[in-house]
Write a structure and sequence with these properties.
- By secondary structure, this protein is of the alpha+beta class.
- It has two domains: 27-111, Leucine-rich Repeat Variant, CATH 1.25.10; 118-310, Roll (C8orf32 fold), CATH 3.10.620.
- The protein has 13 helices and six strands.
- Strands 3-4-5-6 form a four-stranded antiparallel sheet. A two-stranded parallel ribbon has the order 1-2.
- Helix 9 (191-197) links the parallel strand 1 and strand 2 (199-200).
- The two termini are 23 Å apart.
């Protein structure tokens, strides 16, 4: 929704107008007058439509109130206490959208940095799903996993052999694997939900393996194959590619080339090199956008376009 050319105009433009105001229930009576402060005519016109069942109107209101300042929040909070259940429910959904949008802007500020840390970025992404998110319990869970791997692999000298201990522990014993049944769920993107559910997307699981490995003193890289990210474990003289989505199964170069051919893709060396954290974070944002679209959260999905554009790529 575009702002009007003249914010002081008495007749707001660019805003869908109600066909008829609710009889006997003027806006300021329905929502409550803001003592000593009147909202702009544009916001009042928008507030009059809260509760409208049209999806087009609801999308427009989501955009309008997502960008509105304190006046918009006051109107929404008053509407959220309306006697009309439909108005009340819609207003609360709009308030939730404002919180999500604020989290998106905070994430955008981080994603635009020149130097990105993938783990820090994924914790910030988790704050979109859970306002006021505290990553400390989840960091402690990763720390505990790493301590167990260190204990179990203390007698091994080759990092690659220690890496196999990590794979067996996370993939076989703890059961971290891909979510086959609800692949497009946002839960498979948010790192904290992946830790809780032990299910995720290829990138989410590869990131989790990598974060635990780093804590255990192991070197890894994330291999950015199209459609299916995998993890590289480094040894003293060789490295190993494993697939966390399938419980840590080993993959050969030949099997990866066959995967590309099966999907009509030509080999590109870039896909077999460890990807930088910034690229991986943008890819995870794209995964979240797709998951939100698939679960009917199209407004939130569209707002991630800004993150993808300003952080350097789609």
């Amino acid at each position: 929704m575009q702002p009007p050319a003249n914010q002081d105009s008495k007749t707001p433009t660019g805003m869908i107008q109600p066909a008829q105001p609710p009889a006997g229930r003027p806006l300021r009576r329905r929502l409550g007058a803001c003592s000593g402060h009147a909202a702009s005519p544009r916001l009042e016109a928008a507030a009059a439509l809260i509760g409208d069942e049209s999806q087009a109107v609801r999308r427009a209101l989501s955009d309008e109130f997502g960008q509105a300042g304190s006046d918009g929040e006051r109107l929404l909070r008053r509407a959220s206490r309306s006697n009309d259940a439909r108005i009340r429910s819609h207003a609360r959904a709009l308030l939730d959208g404002r919180v999500w949008n604020a989290g998106r802007l905070r994430f955008l500020r981080y994603a635009m940095r020149s130097k990105i840390n993938l783990e820090a970025g994924l914790w910030r992404l988790s704050s979109l799903e859970r306002p006021g998110f505290d990553a400390r319990p989840y960091r402690k869970a990763l720390d505990a996993m790493a301590r167990e791997i260190v204990k179990r692999s203390a007698h091994l000298a080759d990092p690659l052999e220690r890496g196999k201990v990590l794979v067996d522990y996370l993939g076989l014993e703890l059961g971290y694997s891909g979510d086959m049944e609800s692949y497009s769920s946002p839960d498979n993107v948010y790192l904290h939900r992946v830790i809780e559910r032990k299910l995720g997307l290829p990138l989410s699981l590869s990131a989790l393996y990598s974060f635990v490995a780093r804590r255990a003193g192991l070197r890894t890289g994330i291999v950015p194959l199209p459609g299916h990210v995998m993890l590289r474990l480094y040894g003293l003289r060789e490295n190993l590619i494993i697939d966390p989505f399938h419980g840590g199964e080993t993959r050969t170069q030949e099997s990866l080339r066959a995967y590309l051919a099966e999907h009509g893709l030509r080999f590109k060396p870039l896909w077999f090199r460890s990807a930088p954290d910034g690229d991986l974070l943008r890819r995870q944002v794209a995964n979240l956008k797709n998951a939100l679209y698939c679960t009917g959260q199209s407004t939130r999905a569209r707002r991630l376009d800004t993150v993808l554009d300003m952080a350097g790529g789609r």
